[in-house]
Specification:
The structure holds two protein chains of two kinds. By secondary structure, chain A is α+β, with helices and mostly antiparallel strands. Chain A is 36% helix and 20% strand. Chain A has 17 helices and 19 strands. In chain A, α1 runs antiparallel to α4, α10 crosses α12 and α14 runs antiparallel to α15 (407-427). The two termini of chain A are 23 Å apart. Chain B is α/β, with parallel strands linked by helices. Chain B folds into three domains: 10-108, Fumarate Reductase Iron-sulfur Protein, Chain B, domain 2, CATH 1.10.1060.10; 138-247, 3-Layer(aba) Sandwich (Rossmann fold), CATH 3.40.50; 253-372, Rossmann fold (3-Layer(aba) Sandwich). Chain B has helices at 19-22, 33-38, 45-56, 64-70, 78-81, 89-102, 108-120, 143-148, 151-163, 179-183, 187-204, 214-228, 241-250, 281-290, 315-318, 320-336, 347-357, 366-372, and strands spanning 138-142, 169-173, 208-211, 237-240, 265-267, 296-297, 341-344, 362-365. In chain B, the strands form two sheets. Chain B has a four-stranded parallel sheet with strand order 2-1-3-4. Chain B has a four-stranded parallel sheet with strand order 6-5-7-8, with helices on both faces. In chain B, α13 (241-250) crosses α14. The radius of gyration of chain B is 20 Å and the shape is globular. Chain B starts with 18 loop residues before the first helix and ends with a helix. At the A-B interface, α2, α3 and α5 of A face α3 and α4 of B.
Chain lengths: 483, 375
């Protein structure tokens, strides 16, 4: 993005004035490490000996005021800004596609307030998820957002792509737990949303920053609802012969308001592969974990009701151990070599829809992926998690063991598979994504997702960021202003 | 509770290969002490692994900036301790450093240490004493830090052991046990020092080996077999001194005059404790047995997530600013928790904490305090 070494030094000098020399880097090694997040595309690129994208500067601000000043500089020079938390996004949202400045928020890692009366925690956006959780646990509290990425993601990273965690079925997504936020707008203004999330004082503008993935501003602080650690957590596993019965069981648990902590059903393919590999169970069918938490007698009663539902639908009760084992090892699925890793080609093409369309969506995607790419050995697996009173997410993936050696060819194939998956989701009234966000990977589908309503989002972008500096190329927005 | 029955780790023949699983995995980020104080993505387990993998793919040259970053890993082992699939990344990093040393690209400070270790067998440039030619059932590994920097720790340990009826032969007096050179990529030197120590252990015929620190336990039980393809005699029982003393205190072999009033106090878990799955309660129970009523306050970074001071991985020699930051973080944790007294038993950590405390908190050795209050 930067045209001359002179200009580079001019900008470096200005950035240094804001954050100090120790907190600006143009080192080659830092540019390399910040060139990839947790998404497949840049990782594959690097693996094949290519650098996906290089930020010109990596900056570590120590205060919200410093972020503000950095954005003013970026606007003056029309430099792209890429906010960076933990780099744990799987959609390429943190890749510095057009160079510019990466603003790494990890120095902003303080807990500002834990309010045990109103049950909220206010913290800076760069705090690590697990560190925040451990700090709350010391007070017998928890932020009930348990994403698999908690060890690496930051609080701001929970919110920017509207993430979900393992226990979202009871406590909601990150966006449901946030009470208020401090945001630095693209022009450097620092704003706060109201201190409470529920009111009737006009439109809820906090929500436009949730899911904006740094394209509308930078979340610098957030206040989140917290809860006391529960007296008990009960887990149990059941086995369904068909996913249709499992979906129906989950639906009944939700519409009967049993408040399950977790409902997670692996389709027969994942049960036979992933569950076997990570948990060691050899099962035929759809393995479902059901969990409840809270007061012992209430959780036990809820579980009893849930088991009656499962029994009525022909499920086999596997007992408590396979449920507890899943809970204790729920993140192991993401550690290599247990998790997906290069040189495999893979994509999490997850989606969400209503109960009435959920099973059809699953079969349609399975058929589409396997029929289009079956001859090259693709595998399609999925599980149903993150349940709502009206539907659930389908967390599905494609996996390919043999991939083209040429990186461009591999990328094109990856894109073709994604296109088939996303089109099938849209045709079956699924969303293009439930909780991983849009990032770079899904950016090109945003217009198809929203149709005429896209204009509204584009207008907001134009108004907030007329120079198009904020995370360009992501969430459907281009380098310059959009219309 | 010895380490005699713990499975012997397998030798890692190709340490550079181990980074392949870690290069895109971020799952141990939350425990890395260096990442925590630097806030830099590059200086995290994933960053180091990706650097090494990229160098192998000709995407990164080992220029001075990259080498400097490579030498900022503390080799504390927390990443591996918290890895669900037990990836030995610290060994991979040590392997990459060895390759850098071999190519003549290591920092000058590393090469200066190499020279000192080759000549003196310790980084303090002090002559090591002759090994005593003795045999016996019990031995204690002294090493270089306790011998040269905090001999009072060793004296206290000997006094405490004597009170339990044990008079061990002192081994490896003044000699580095090999962890420091291994961390820095000086693998041949590490193997040589380790071999000398193992030979000395064998020559005594001892059956019980007492160790002053978790770092020493890690070195002889894990690092030797895994990085250096060396092993202790099969019959040998490796004993964590703190755990042994705690049992002795429980059994009534050790009695202490109570320390009155004062407090609150905090305990810094010594470096490498998490990677050997230490019994973290033993030193805490010992401290509780010393104090009459003083309140114990806890670090956030404690037990299996305990962050080290700056004396790990040779940071105090090669990266003094980072080492200072890590030590300061430990002091600040204790001060923020309201502690007036801070205890630990690792000789080098004790020295570093004392040197930086600057009157803000009183830093004391666990063993010295116990010995001073023996009944």
């Amino acid at each position: 993005m930067i045209v001359s070494s002179l200009q580079r030094e001019m900008i470096f000098s200005e950035l240094e004035d804001v954050v100090g020399a120790d907190h600006v880097s143009t080192r080659q090694v830092d540019q390399l490490i910040y060139s990839t997040d947790w998404s497949w595309m840049p990782q594959m690129w690097l693996d094949r000996g290519l650098i996906p994208a290089r930020a010109d500067f990596i900056v570590h601000p120590g205060s919200v005021e410093e972020i503000s000043e950095l954005l003013k500089i970026a606007n003056a020079y029309r430099l792209p800004i890429v906010p960076w938390g933990g780099g744990s996004g799987t959609q390429g949202g943190a890749i510095p596609t057009y160079g510019g400045i990466i603003i790494d928020l990890k120095r902003l890692n303080k807990i500002l307030e834990v309010n045990e009366e109103s049950l909220y925690v206010c913290a800076q956006a760069g705090i690590n998820g697990t560190q925040l959780e451990w700090a709350l646990n010391e007070k017998n509290l928890t932020l009930p957002h348990y994403p698999a990425s908690a060890n690496c993601a930051t609080l701001g990273g929970y919110l920017a792509p509207r993430g979900s965690g393992t226990i979202s079925t009871k406590y909601g997504k990150a966006e449901d737990l946030v009470m208020s936020m401090q945001v630095v707008l693209p022009d450097g203004r620092i704003i706060r949303t109201p201190g409470v999330p529920n009111h009737a004082s006009g439109p809820d503008f906090m929500r436009i920053f949730l899911g904006s993935e740094g394209t509308f501003g930078i979340i610098s602080e957030a206040t989140m609802r917290i809860v006391p650690l529960p007296e008990t957590r009960l887990f149990r596993a059941v086995l369904f012969k068909s996913i249709g019965d499992g979906i129906e069981a989950g639906r009944r648990m939700m519409v009967d308001r049993l408040e399950p902590l977790v409902i997670r059903m692996y389709d027969p393919s994942s049960t036979a592969s992933l569950v076997k590999k990570v948990l060691g169970y050899e099962l035929e069918g759809a393995y479902m974990i059901i969990g409840f938490d809270g007061w012992e007698e209430i959780a036990a009663a809820q579980e009893k009701r849930a088991m009656l539902i499962c029994e009525a639908l022909g499920a086999k009760d596997l007992g408590r151990e396979p449920g507890e084992r899943w809970w204790n090892h729920r993140y192991d699925f993401y550690y290599p070599p247990l998790g997906l890793h290069l040189p495999q080609m893979y994509g999490t093409i997850e989606t969400v829809t209503t109960f009435s369309k959920l099973e059809d969506l699953y079969w349609a995607k399975k058929k589409a992926i396997e029929s289009h790419f079956g001859e090259i050995g693709i595998r399609y697996i999925g599980h149903f998690s993150h349940w709502f009173p009206w539907g659930a997410s389908l967390y599905d993936r494609f996996i390919l063991e043999e991939t083209p050696e040429d990186p461009k060819e591999a990328l094109h194939l990856h894109n073709r598979i994604w296109t088939v998956a996303v089109r099938t989701s849209l045709e079956n009234e699924g969303m293009i994504n439930e909780h991983h966000g849009v990032g770079l990977k899904l950016s090109r589908y945003m217009r198809a997702q929203y149709g005429p309503a896209w204009h509204l989002l584009a207008s907001i972008k134009e108004a907030l960021d007329p120079n198009g500096i904020m995370n360009p190329g992501k969430v459907g927005f281009g380098v310059q202003s959009n219309g | 509770m010895g380490d005699r029955h713990a499975p012997k780790p397998a030798f890692i023949e190709n340490p550079l290969q181990v980074v392949e699983y870690c290069r895109y995995c971020l799952m141990c980020r939350h425990v890395c002490p260096v990442g925590h104080v630097t806030h830099n993505e590059t200086l995290t387990p994933h960053g180091w692994a990706l650097m090494i993998a990229s160098a192998q793919r000709n995407l990164l040259e080992w220029n001075p900036e990259a080498v400097d970053a490579l030498y900022k890993c503390a080799d504390c082992g927390l990443c591996r301790t918290h890895c669900a699939t037990d990836q030995p990344l610290p060994t991979g990093i040590a392997g990459a450093r060895a390759a850098v040393v071999e190519e003549g690209l290591a920092p000058e400070s590393v090469m200066a240490l190499k020279e000192a270790l080759e000549r003196w067998a310790n980084p303090f440039q002090r002559a090591t004493p002759e090994s005593p030619i003795k045999t016996g059932e019990d031995a204690i590994l002294v090493g270089d830090a306790a011998y040269f920097r905090t001999p009072q720790t060793l004296d206290a340990a000997m006094q405490l052991l004597a009170a339990t009826g044990v008079e061990p032969i002192q081994l490896a007096r003044g000699r580095n046990l090999g962890l420091l050179p291994s961390s820095l990529g000086l693998s041949e030197l590490a193997a040589e020092l380790a071999s000398q120590t193992i030979e000395e252990i064998k020559s005594t015929g001892c059956r019980r080996l007492f160790l002053l620190t978790p770092g020493d336990i890690y070195t002889v039980t894990r690092l030797y077999p895994e990085r250096l393809n060396l092993g202790l005699p099969d019959h040998l029982e490796v004993i964590d001194l703190a755990a042994y003393l705690e049992r002795s205190q429980e059994n009534g072999l050790l009695r202490f005059e109570k320390i009155r009033g004062e407090g609150p106090y905090a305990y810094h878990d010594p470096e490498h404790g998490a990677r050997i799955k230490r019994n973290h309660s033993a030193p805490r129970k010992l401290l509780r047995s010393l104090f009459e009523a003083a309140r114990e306050v806890s670090f956030f970074w404690r037990e299996d997530r305990a962050h080290p001071t700056g004396v790990v991985g040779g940071l105090n020699w090669v990266q003094p600013d980072l080492a200072r930051d890590l030590t300061e973080a430990r002091l600040q944790e204790a001060i923020d928790a309201g502690a007036r007294f801070l205890f630990t038993e690792d000789p080098l950590a004790l020295e570093a904490l004392r040197a930086q405390a600057d009157g803000r908190i009183e830093v004391s050795g666990l063993y010295e305090t116990m010995a001073a209050h023996l009944e």
